[in-house]
Amino acid sequence: MASNYNRKSASSGSRKARGAAPSGRVRSSAPASRASGRGSGRTPARSSSRSSQPGTYRAMPGGRYPAASTRPQQRLTSVRVGDLDRAERSARAQGTYRRHVVRIVVVLVLVAALAIGAAVAYNSNLFAVENVTVSGVEHLTTDDMTAMANVPANTTLLRVDAAGIRERLLKNAWVADAEVKRIFPNTLELAVTERTIAAVVAVPTEDAKSVKRWAIASDHMWLMPIPDQDSEAGKRTSPKVYEDAAAVLSITDVPYGTSAEIGAYCTDSNVNNALDIVSSMTTDLSGRVTKVSATDAEGTTLTLDNNVEIAFGKAENIRDKERVVLKIMEDNPTVVYINVRVVDRPTWRAL
């Protein structure tokens, strides 16, 4: 009996010792855990596992507990791979956008600086025109071209009216085309393409008592009346005009009433027919024509350098007519007259 009593007392005292915590000490949360364990019907965990959880403290020998740790605990977060890709793309896009903005700003600054510099140079006397040169002229003189260009004395290469100068040059019958070139720092070049003399036409005067020789171009433009070379006007005329006039064909027997005007296109059908015949020839025959009688289109007659006369007629079937003429001349060395007005029925006369 005594032994049983002692065991009960010891166990009761042991339970009391466990139930009451010493004064001034932190109460362990183990009973609460066991209580919750009993309420949920679960078996309470061992003390070793409880002490490893956050917020619990394992009792040290002697009933003491360690001081609470002051180190902040890290919180774990989760990030999706797609979110990282979007963030990276957004960062790259923002960087690209900033670079583009910087480039645009730099370009705008440069453009503004160039515009300001150009405006200052345009309104200043920089690149003043000091020399005017002329190229491509043979029938016109440099003085004539400079006078026609009429370049203002106080202009510069930046302010010069190139279009106006070109327009003034094109008013001259000899000028087929013109280009105004700026050669920095102070030279203006007038590059001219001249018309050439295709024929010299003997145009009857108003009183029909004589004829006046006119130079005409291949595009049917009247170039100039050719003055006598020993006259005052002839001395002012380029020697090239007389050189070409002597080398080209002569159109004669032009009907009375044919008019010629410098810079105007010929309207006489007889003269135009003669020009079309000669300009359309493709064989050696074209270089041998020295004179054309243009009384009328049907009666147009060519004279060769060997004095053979060719009744050519209208400017039709020109290649076929050339072929027939050359064949007749080859077969008949003494021929003096050939009629090819009707190309499939030619006639000729020989000595």
TrEMBL record:
Q: Which organism is it from?
A: Gordonibacter massiliensis (ex Traore et al. 2017)
Q: Which GO terms describe its biological process?
A: cell septum assembly
Which intervals of the chain are annotated as region Disordered?
Answer: 1-92
Q: What PROSITE patterns is this protein classified in? A: POTRA (PS51779)
Q: Where is the composition biased (Basic and acidic residues)?
A: 82-91
The family database entries (InterPro entries) matched by this protein are listed as: Cell_div_FtsQ/DivIB_C (IPR005548), FtsQ (IPR026579), POTRA (IPR034746), POTRA_FtsQ_type (IPR013685)
- Can you cite an annotated GO cellular component? membrane
Record bears the keyword Manganese: no
Biased composition range(s): Low complexity: 7-52
Q: What Pfam families does the annotation carry?
A: FtsQ_DivIB_C (PF03799), POTRA_1 (PF08478)
Protein name, please? FtsQ-type POTRA domain-containing protein
